[in-house]
Every structure is written in structure tokens, then in C-alpha cells.
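Q: Got a minute? One more chain.
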Amino acid sequence: MILSCTTCSLRGRGRDEIEETFRWAPEAGFTAWGLGGPFTWEPGLIQWMDTAKVKAGALAAGLTRLTEVWTPPIPTDTPERATEGARHIALSAQAAGELDCDLLVQTGGPRSEGGLDRTLAGLQQLDEALGDLPIRVALEPHVGSQILYAEEYDRLMGELPFPRFGITVDTGHFHTAGVDWKALIRQYPERIYNVHLKDHIGPQSVAIGAGEIDLPGLIAELRAIGYEAALAIEMEVTDPGNLHAYVKQAHEHMVRLTAG
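A: Always. Here it is, folded:
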């Protein structure tokens, strides 16, 4: 498995999270990273990112692999907005290709009546827009979003084409929502494309290894399905001034957990 540090793990320190990741993630031992932040989630903004500069900066820092690029959500309020959302995600796919990354992470828009229908329609349009591009899309749960519960994944995995679409297992959001993420891994072993590895106490993100999420159990479930992709560290703690230390602790903790 690939230990990856997402930029959100170094957000909230009053500095640019990409630059912070380039500074602190390699020092902590990471050689892989995940790209999030305003450039990725604000619709259309990523087309203005200097991807060549970002790629060169990552390599100069010692980050040799980009495991994921986040995208804006598919809006759930109207079919027209869902279509617009698909176009914006296609821009994310273009940027990901320029950054030598083949995985987009897509979080659902706000929960609404008929929102899952619009989400599904938008993702189907995205599939058409991507055509033959070698880009996969991993659908990530968020509390309050249209993609969260097992029955929603059942429908999405049943109606969206494989291998284009799969799942990001976000241990924090699943834990907060009470979703049995171990059962989801067992049900869709071939469609687990990515893991956002968080630790929580209740709904609050804490340092990796300091919470109540069964991280050893996660590694066991992933090994059982032959998972070899990213364990992407995420932290959204209440004391972001300590994030650079927590990132180092996270790497050390996960190296120990995955060493057996």
C-alpha cells in the first residue's frame, strides 16, 4: 500500500496547503501526496492552475507520486446544474492527466430530494465526457452529501460503469455517519480505488492513532481484498498548529501498522 499525504492534512496553518505539503510531507517520510484545496473544489478554478509548476515543485520536494486529485461536487439542485458539474469535473481530469495522476476523488453535492438521481445523471455525463481518457473516479462519502450511505453506493455501483467508477473509503465520514465501512469493502472489493485514512473521536478528526477508529482492522480488510493503492492521510484537527508534527506521527504509525 502507498502512504500518501493529502494537502488537507496541512490545512489551517495560515499558509498555502500545497506549499505546506511540499515542505512537511517529505520531511515526515512521505513520497506520495494527494491534491486538494480551493483550486480543486471550486468549480472551474483548476483550469487556471499552473500544473507544470505544481508538478515540478512536488518533484523538487521529493514527492514523486500524486495519488489523487479532488474535484468539485455534482450539484444536486437541478439537472442543468448537474450537467454543468460534469463539465467542471472534466477540467479536473485534464489537470490530473497533466500531473500524471489517473484518479479523481468526487464527493457528492448536498443531500436533496431527487439528489441521487441528479448525481447519477451527472456522473453518467462525466463518463461520456471523459471518453477514452485513462482516468478513474472514486466516489467519496461526506456527512451531509448525497454520497454517504450503503444504499447509495449500491445504486451508484450498480448503474455506473466499471472500471471508470469506484469508491473512496473515508474512515472519518463513514465513522461519523455510522456506516459499516468494513462491510462495504467486502461487498465491493474490486471497486475500492482509494482510502482516506482518518482517525476520529466521535465526529471530530484527531491525530492518526489517537482516536477510536479501528485502523488495524482497516489494514486487515484491505489486505484481504489485495488492496495495493493509496492510504491517503487526512486530518482536520482542532489544533492545526500541530499538524506538521501530526503528519510525521501519522507516517510513523502507518508504517508500523502496514509492516506486518
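A: Strands lie at 2-6, 32-35, 65-70, 103-107, 136-140, 165-170, 192-197, 199-201, 204-206, 230-233.
Q: Perfect, thanks.
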